[in-house]
Amino acid sequence: MSTPRPLPPVVYHPAYSAPMPPGHRFPMHKYARLAQVLEDEGLIGPEGLYAPEPASFEMLAAVHDPACVQQVLDAAVPPTIERVIGMPVTRGVSDRAQAAVGGTLMAARLALRHGLACNTAGGSHHAGPKGGAGFCVFNDIGVVARAMLDAGEIRQALVVDLDVHQGDGTAFIFEHEPRVFTFSMHGEKNYPVRRGPSDLDIDLPDGTGDETYLAELRAILPGLLQRVAPDLICYIAGVDPHESDRLGRLALSDEGLAARDAYVLETCLPVAPVVGVIGGGYDDDIDRLARRHAILHRAAADAWRSDLARPAA
Hints:
Blueprint: E1 10-11, H1 30-40, H2 57-61, H3 66-73, H4 79-85, H5 91-114, E2 116-119, H6 140-150, E3 157-161, H7 168-173, E4 180-187, E5 200-204, H8 210-228, E6 232-236, H9 254-268, E7 274-277, H10 286-305
Parallel strand pairs: 1-2, 2-7, 3-4, 3-6, 4-5, 6-7
């Protein structure tokens, strides 16, 4: 009998932090800083960080337009498409996008094996069938859920997307796929303008704070789990609902985010394995932002220590 792991598996790759033009709005350095924060806080098990393999062309092209995938892999994305994505698709950004998808795939498979695992990137939910958008090159949750369904690793997935922005790309990818239920709770007056057809969307007014947010979530999640009966739950734990996030419009505190993540895990883990990804978060102070993203990993460690995680049957 193997010795139980003291902490849930955590996936990271150095390629997550790609070089960006000076002054670019996307906080690319948060990923490397998050990994350091997790090490400093003792949230990485003795086996260390798990390093993923990059996602293959075939896996990416099963969800995204193959021509767009090839342009990304060649670092030859037309300027008009780069503007939609919101960043230059350099070789570093291309490698990062493949690594992040591979990281979510590894974390999902580790979650099936151990009950819970987290990626230190992921949640690129604006990338859709036609290609990238909104700082998202490839949709990691979309690619991973599709690959695992096709391989027979899972039969039913639930996406719990609590980023402040609606998960439009994920919704379009799985618009006609009943084996993936997409739930997005987000700000009603935020990006994207054109919303995707999620199975369940909850729009929250500007300024929504901890109490109202958590009450809404508690009213929805238990019944949703019973209705969907997933065998894998993909949790996008965006921290952009935070009151100081520069691209959010909600008003959650650090304590509110911690209560949200703890509630999601304690409610979901008895039902099915959970793979957590960090989603969006935007702050000029990278250290502060990385510590905010670490809230998911702290909650995962607490849930693990409480023996809530159960491997897939």
